[in-house]
Design goal:
about 290 residues, mainly alpha, 15 helices
């Protein structure tokens, strides 16, 4: 590693992943998918992220997404592909990303040299991404790169998000956290999704979360109050460190100066998007 410790992780969390994720919580996505006949919020979420893999069934998506309840996935896939094709879904998603970024960032930012620079930096980082063992990244890497700078940036952040995400799943397996334990321990950090959103989007019941918390307490990861123990904090850090290692190549390729600049530019765009209401206020936290 030639980058400062945790530099890539900080940029990913502050500038890369949030830009990609603006589309998931955007009313523009619901509008575009509604025009296709896809109206259920979970179906929109599942179809938008899995469409790059083609008209896949629930098994492949549960595996690739890791922490969704399989019954929830199976309730919407493959049925959603009878309503719209993956190609139609991908086109609708890109239209939604266009509308969303224009609304959140404003025309001046969309047309700025800084946004074009950020798009170039993010695309350069993707040059070092690898396909092997990374199903979601590899599927998205087969998609055409948009021409407009703001959509190139969104596409690049999508690639970088899925590249790290695929590696994170491998790290979760190595660390020994099953899908529910991963969610519950992440919520306990205060940086994960609240239980409300875990249940609403991932499909789990409170009893499922309670059972996972019991298993984590038995392992010494959580204390009696559901807070991370010292071992729990150490486990989560080992998980992130292994994820960093598996995801180092794109940011090493970009270099320290390029990474810092991407963080500066992308972080500014994210702050602007958040101020414009990009995410629900109760999305992250412990409760």
């Amino acid at each position: 590693m030639t980058l400062p410790p945790h530099a890539a992780r900080r940029v990913w969390h502050a500038a890369v992943n949030p830009l990609h994720a603006t589309s998931y919580f955007s009313p523009d996505l619901a509008t575009e998918f509604g025009a296709l006949g896809i109206t259920h919020r979970v179906a929109v979420n599942l179809a938008s992220r899995s469409a790059a893999m083609g008209a896949v069934g629930p098994g492949a998506v549960t595996a690739a997404f890791y922490n969704y309840r399989h019954d929830l996935v199976a309730a919407h896939l493959p049925a959603v592909w009878d309503t719209a094709t993956p190609e139609q879904v991908l086109a609708a998603r890109l239209r939604a990303a266009d509308t969303t970024l224009r609304r959140l960032l404003g025309d001046e930012v969309i047309a700025s040299a800084e946004l074009a620079e950020a798009a170039g930096l993010a695309m350069r980082a993707t040059e070092a991404c690898t396909r092997h063992g990374r199903a979601l990244y590899a599927a998205h890497a087969d998609l055409p790169v948009p021409e407009e700078p703001h959509l190139r940036l969104w596409h690049a952040t999508t690639l970088l998000r899925e590249h790290r995400g695929d590696g994170h799943l491998a790290a979760l397996l190595i660390t020994g956290l099953d899908p529910l334990e991963a969610l519950v321990s992440h919520t306990a950090t205060g940086r994960g999704m609240t239980p409300k959103w875990v249940k609403g989007i991932r499909g789990w019941e409170q009893s499922d979360l309670d059972s996972a918390a019991e298993r984590l307490r038995a392992r010494g990861v959580l204390d009696a109050d559901g807070e991370l123990t010292e071992e729990g904090h150490a486990l989560r850090e080992r998980l992130e460190t292994e994820t960093d290692r598996l995801d180092a190549a794109p940011y090493e390729h970009l270099g320290a100066a390029g990474l810092a600049r991407l963080g500066e530019l992308g972080g500014g765009f994210v702050k602007r998007a958040i101020a414009a209401g990009a995410f629900p206020r109760d999305l992250f936290g412990k409760g």
